């Protein structure tokens, strides 16, 4: 009987630990980038959806931006199409563009929306075409000083923040697929990390969180120690020294860009940890790596 009471009291104290964080975030907007690499299994996805729904119910306004690179890969594979990547960006010809849009908007987006709604969240799935949310133009990548044409890969020109604010400030959870729309109506495939950072900037989010499949940043790749907080300058130095590379670069640069444009906190989180969003936001210790100015 007493043991049971102790457990209950412990549960209450865990909830109370969250109080100052809830107060700080109440009414604020948090942008959560959910990468395809962190959508490992249904159980994990369910935990993420629970965390996001809980945030909404305690008065925080989450906006979800999702990736889905692995989903696109598996459909392309069935069609016997192989993708090439330049600096982490998928070279996107017309056929790949069609597949990317079908998969991200029709499959990945709707799965996440449906799961959130199952949890009691009121999720609305949109992509950059809806309400001209993500206005885009063709992106050229530079490799060793040379301009490379990646086809229908886009870069963000502007974000129609009003669309997201209308939904997020109301009872809805916007879930955004990273497809942009050009002035002439052309669809563009945009890296989801970049979209998340641009959205966080445009709506001046309180927080931007990248959920991926690494524990966080490390000074030494072979070390077990995760950097819990690091400045933007230190991050840039680590990139120069080659200590941060590949898919992590758009995430950390997105964090720095967002911080410089008014976002207060940015984080890189291990999406493979159960309830990683709650652990980061509502515990004293937090998890993953926080990047600050
Ligand atoms: C990405 C969009 C999806 C994405 C792609 O085609 O894979 C470009 O590379 P993850 O899961 O976050 O990697 N677009 C241009 O970013 O998904």
UniProtKB/TrEMBL annotation:
Pfam families per record: AA_kinase
Pathway where this protein functions: Amino-acid biosynthesis; L-arginine biosynthesis; N(2)-acetyl-L-ornithine from L-glutamate: step 2/4
Catalysed conversion reaction: N-acetyl-L-glutamate + ATP = N-acetyl-L-glutamyl 5-phosphate + ADP
Domain of life: Bacteria
The UniProt record lists the keyword Transmembrane: no
Localization in the cell: Cytoplasm
Enzyme class: transferase
Entry binding sites for substrate: 68-69, 90, 189
Recorded GO MF terms: acetylglutamate kinase activity
Keywords: Amino-acid biosynthesis, Arginine biosynthesis, ATP-binding, Cytoplasm, Kinase, Nucleotide-binding, Transferase
InterPro entries: AceGlu_kinase-like_sf, AcgluKinase_fam, ArgB, Asp/Glu/Uridylate_kinase, Glu/AcGlu_kinase, NAGK-C
Record-linked CDD domains: AAK_NAGK-C (cd04250)
HAMAP family: ArgB
Homology family: Belongs to the acetylglutamate kinase family. ArgB subfamily.
UniProt function note: Catalyzes the ATP-dependent phosphorylation of N-acetyl-L-glutamate.
Protein name, entry field: Acetylglutamate kinase
Organism: Anaerocellum danielii
Gene name tied to this protein: argB
